[in-house]
Specification:
The structure is a single chain. The chain has 677 residues and is α/β, with parallel strands linked by helices. Helix content is 34%, strand content 22%. The strands form eight sheets. It has an eight-stranded mixed beta sheet, with helices on both faces. A hairpin with a 2-residue loop joins strand 9 and strand 10. 52% of the residues are buried. The chain binds 5'-O-[(S)-ethoxy(hydroxy)phosphoryl]adenosine. One of its GO terms (molecular function) is propionate-CoA ligase activity.
Length: 677
């Protein structure tokens, strides 16, 4: 039976070319060449018809794509069973598959020596290439090792590693044996890691001895040691060696590479139901507690694969360079799952944009012959400041598409990316999506090769995505040239299914605000032409260098300081980071502290309890209270206007509990920003 299973899952062809001539008769050849499945869609003779079909016949669209592009152990019997208003989302019900088989085995069958991963190590010029065959081998050994150590189907394994092949193999090994993974960004502190391990009820952690980034060594294993002290459920920690420096090992620790060598290179893939959990990924929301978004097997993988293929126009043989860390959703979907499901070659970038110098990205593009480059606006803005020479030094003629993700890209950065990096040749795709959406939902491509791209706009919905804008009363805005709350009107396979251990929060956050729609938390503008432009978060989540952080999370930490009575954190517009963190702190009456020492202490606390990137850029300490409504709500609108120095915009203060508080705040802001640049 095991053999039959293996045969069955690996015998499917990696599709694309299975459509026969008889199906394509009468179809304009460009659309069938563009997407073979389109040949089977009634009345679809061009791309815009295909887009319409995918939205109005989303079930038929996804059924065809799922059959064609995934290898199933058992076919699904129901395409979808969704009720957005109740937060019930199921795709490809009845189907069984294994994600690691889809990402590895089927490509090993057709092209074992193709490079799957190019690990662009921190040390420039020392890249390591991993073929599909050897990635499968690595994954199988690791899967067997995890199994031997008692990791079972349904367990959750926390991965706290830098971006590297063993991290990818760890994710895929979990998928292979039916465990869920929970990758925690290796920049998070011990406490933040511990919170995520506990919430995920993880009994196993995988880490490395040390991390290396930008030439600096970080003690990841030590951080894990500290974290697991407050995680009684953790029974074992697998430790891989990223550097040669030994670390203290305890009885709980397992030397990963050493033990992997003892394992077999064949590992029976678990037959997973479409809706079994593939991974949890924690992200910030508007409360102090991060939420573990849950993604499942088939729908997530299919959506990552299809968006990777079509948004970036990825073709066989291309080298795909997504520079995101695997600790974020972008790393999951576009460094790992999308490219591997498509049998692609994907770059794992371990370094920073300016190490050893600001030419790093482009030197890498030249050396690795990267065809699609996918990065964050914050890095583009930073590099722009270093000047064009760093770009011109290197040959970028392999580049075909440039992508941007994580935050709005301002026109100046967009133009520079397009003109200087891409020599005016490559389409720039500003891709809008979220941890919750699993993959790209709005982006200028796919569209006709000559379709216009407007700088700084995500523009066009992906296949089957139906964006909807709501006014403040919750009514659908039907016309163009309007702004509103961005919702998505029908489910798609890539969307998150729930929040781990808190389905109620999932419903309240995403489904309740606009019943029947998925609420994204972002605002958007729809132009006269019908293009979408994201205007920013509508909730108390801010975006610092493309990293999401809830203002409440930072406030929770500040409030733990003995001298602090209360605090309010807001985001403000920042040249490089997109948004910076500005904290207002009210001291307790009787405390005597020195401002600078207190700020230092508060910064240390945030860094220790969350991560460095969450540290406030400004901390304004004062003694009166925060501006509040009579019902006790902090008026963030007022604080934002003060920081934006838009005092006329402060507006009506008559509902304030104590209007004089605002005077002190304005004064304090002036003093602070006069002093600190
Ligand atoms: C923001 C990252 C404008 C947005 C993939 C979203 C963007 C949040 C864009 C999700 C974009 C992401 N233009 N804003 N192209 N892409 N965002 O979960 O506010 O880390 O809600 O996912 O980033 O961040 P997350």
């Amino acid at each position: 039976a095991a053999e039959a299973l293996r045969m069955n899952v690996t015998s499917d062809l990696p599709v694309i070319c299975q459509v026969t001539a008889k199906h394509t008769a009468g179809i304009k050849c460009n659309v069938a060449a563009f997407m073979p499945e389109a040949a089977g869609f009634d009345g679809v003779s061009d791309r815009s018809a295909l887009q319409e079909f995918s939205v109005s016949n989303s079930e038929s669209f996804w059924a065809a794509v799922a059959r064609q592009r995934l290898s199933w152990i058992r076919p699904f019997h129901t395409v979808q069973d969704c009720d957005l208003s109740r937060g019930e989302i199921k795709w490809f019900v009845g189907g069984q598959l294994n994600v690691s088989v889809n990402c590895l085995d089927r490509h090993v069958h057709t092209c074992p020596e193709r490079v799957a991963l190019i690990w662009e190590r921190d040390e420039s010029g020392s890249e390591v290439k991993v073929t599909y065959r050897s990635l499968l081998e690595m994954t199988c050994r690791l899967g067997n090792l995890l199994r031997r150590h008692g990791v079972k189907r349904g367990d959750c394994v926390t991965i706290y590693m830098p971006t590297c092949p063993l991290a990818v193999a760890s994710m895929l090994a979990c998928a292979r044996i039916g465990a869920a993974h929970n990758v925690v960004f290796a920049g998070f502190s011990a406490e933040a890691l511990a919170e995520r391990i506990r919430d995920a009820q993880s009994g196993t952690v995988i880490t490395v001895n040390q991390g290396v980034r930008g030439g600096k060594v970080t003690e990841l294993k030590k951080t894990v040691d500290t974290a697991v002290q407050s995680c009684p459920a953790v029974q074992q920690v697998f430790v891989a060696m990223r550097t040669e420096n030994p670390v203290a090992m305890t009885a709980r620790d397992v030397a990963m590479e050493e033990e992997m060598l003892k394992e077999d290179v064949v590992c029976e893939p678990a037959a997973m139901d479409s809706e079994d959990v593939l991974f949890l990924l924690y992200t910030s929301g508007s409360t102090g507690k991060p939420k573990g978004l849950v993604h499942t097997q088939a729908g997530y993988l299919l959506y990552a694969a299809l968006t990777h293929r079509y948004v970036f126009s990825y073709h066989d043989g291309d080298v795909f360079g997504c520079v995101a860390d695997i600790g974020w959703i972008t790393g999951h979907s576009y460094s790992v799952y999308g490219p591997l499901a498509n049998g692609g070659t994907t770059v794992l970038f371990e370094s920073t944009p300016i190490y050893p110098d600001p030419g790093r990205y482009w030197e890498m593009v030249q050396r690795l012959k990267i065809n699609q480059f996918y990065g964050a606006p914050t890095a583009i803005r930073l590099l722009l400041k270093y000047g064009d020479e760093w770009v011109h030094k290197y040959d970028r003629s392999t580049l075909k598409t440039l992508g941007s993700v994580g935050e709005p890209i301002n026109t100046e950065a967009w133009e520079w990316y397009h003109r200087v990096v891409g020599d005016g040749r490559c389409p720039v795709v500003d891709t809008w999506w979220q941890t919750e959406t699993g993959g790209i939902c709005i982006s200028p491509r796919p569209s006709d090769a000559d379709a216009e791209i407007v700088p700084g706009m995500a523009m066009r919905p992906f296949f089957s995505i139906k964006p909807t804008l709501m006014d403040t009363e919750g009514k659908v805005l039907t016309s163009n040239d309007v702004s509103g709350a961005l919702c998505i009107a029908q489910p798609w396979p890539g969307m998150a299914r729930t929040i781990h251990n808190n389905h109620q929060r999932f419903i309240e956050t995403y489904c309740r605000p606009h019943p029947g729609y998925f609420f994204t938390g972002d605002g958007a503008y729809r132009s006269k032409e019908g293009y979408y432009q994201i205007t920013g978060r509508l909730d108390d989540v801010i975006n610092v260098s493309g990293h999401r952080i809830g203002t409440a999370e930072i406030e929770d930490v500040l409030n733990q300081c003995a001298a602090v009575a209360e605090s309010a954190v807001i985001g403000y517009s920042h040249d490089l980071k997109g948004q910076g963190v500005y904290a207002f702190v009210v001291l307790k009456n009787d405390v005597e502290v020195q401002g600078a020492a207190l700020c230092q202490q508060l910064n240390n606390m945030v860094s220790k309890k969350i991560a460095k990137y969450a540290c406030p850029d400004f901390i304004q300490v004062f003694v009166q209270r925060l501006p509040k409504t009579r019902s006790g709500k902090i008026m963030r609108r007022v604080l934002r206007k003060v920081v934006e120095r838009d005092l006329d915009g402060v507006g009506d203060l008559s509902t304030l509990d104590d209007p004089t508080a605002v005077q002190e705040i304005i004064q304090g802001h002036g003093d602070l920003c006069g002093k600190q640049p």
